[in-house]
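batch job 7 of whatever, protein = Arginine repressor
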Amino acid sequence: MTDHTPALQRPATRTARLSAIEQALLTRIVTSQSQLSQILADQGIEVTQATLSRDLDEIHATKTRLADGTVAYAVGKQNIDEHPASNPDAKTEQQISRVLSGLVTSVAAARNLVVVHTPSGAAQYVASVIDKQPIEGVLGTIAGDDTVMVICSEDDVAKRRAQWLLDVASKA
């Protein structure tokens, strides 16, 4: 399956760079700073080794030995058995299911959008959880008080993601 997600355009800011680094570590197996530097360069982000080292420290990235023996960078609570590059769907579903199971009241697709209804006051939290996961075809979210709009790259992606969100929310 080909990923039709348009490339994100990032401003040349420290915050955007940190976000790009974190996203790279969450979605790929990165074994060295030079590899990470190249990934960032491919996104138009030039960074020195010293800056990259400080950035990795700031986002609390650590080197972790994967199940196959490879040593790679990990962010947050990733562990050896849950590296997203080896099993992205299971990890993503598990994390999202914990939140969505009690907070999603309905889901509907409309063109390239998915509309998610929540109890009053929960939409911002649900949107944040969705935004933090590397979900193929999802560009981002917008949240109000009780409604989240998930912006997808294409209409058919929105239909699949709506069903997926409904399935994940129903797992409790």
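notes: The domain at 88-169 is CATH 3.30.1360.40 (Gyrase A; domain 2).
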